[in-house]
Amino acid sequence: MRVAYLGALLLSGGGLALADRRWRLLFWEDARRAALVVGTGVAVLLAADLVGIAHGLFFRAPTRVMTGLLLAPELPVEEPVFLAFLSYLTMLLVRGSERVLARGGTP
User: Fold this and answer.
1) Which pLDDT does position 62 carry in this prediction?
2) Regions of the chain short of the pLDDT cut 70
3) How far apart are CA 26 and CA 28, in angstroms?
4) For 72, phi and psi rounded to 5 degrees?
5) CA distances from 87 to 16, 37, 67 (A)
6) How many Cβ atoms from other residues are within 10 Å of residue 73's Cβ?
7) CA dist 26 to 31, 35, 56, 68, Å?
8) End-to-end Cα, the chain, rounded Å
9) Tell me: the pLDDT tens digits for 80-101?
C-alpha cells in the first residue's frame, strides 16, 4: 500500500491524458506549448510549497499510502506528481470550458 497514492495519481493522470487525446485540448493540440504551461504551473506551485516548508507552514504527515521517499525535507516524491496532475487538470478544464463557451454554451 506504500505506493497507493502515487499509483492513484498516475492512474488519474492517465485518465486525463485519454480525455485530452479524445478532445485534443492540450497536449494533443500543441505538445510543446502544453509542456511549457504545465511545467510552469508545477514550478510555481513547487516554489510556493518550498516557501511554505521553509516557514514551517507545510509538513509531511506519516501515512501508509505514500512511499515515504522525500525529495527534500518535508517534500514527498508524490508532491510534484500531484502538482503536475493539478496543473494538467486545470488546463484541461480551462480549454474545455473555452470550447464549450465558444459554441454558445452547448457541450
Assistant:
1) 80
2) 106-107
3) 6
4) -155, 170
5) 11, 8, 22
6) 9
7) 7, 9, 36, 32
8) 39
9) 999 999 999 999 999 999 999 9
The structural domains of the chain, with segments of one domain joined by +, span 4-102
Look at residue 70 in the predicted model and tell me its pLDDT: 95
Strand partners, 75: 72
Query: Biggest alpha carbon distance in the chain?
Result: 49
Cα–Cα distance measured from residue 33 to residue 58, given in angstroms and rounded to the nearest whole number: 31
Which grid cell sits at 33? 506549448
* One-letter amino acid for residue 36 of the chain: L
- Angle (CA) 51-42-73 rounded to 5° is 40
Of the candidates 48, 34, 54, the one whose C-alpha atom is nearest the C-alpha of residue 80 is: 48
pLDDT at 107: 62
> CA angle 17-18-24, nearest 5°?
80
Give pTM, 2 decimals.
0.93
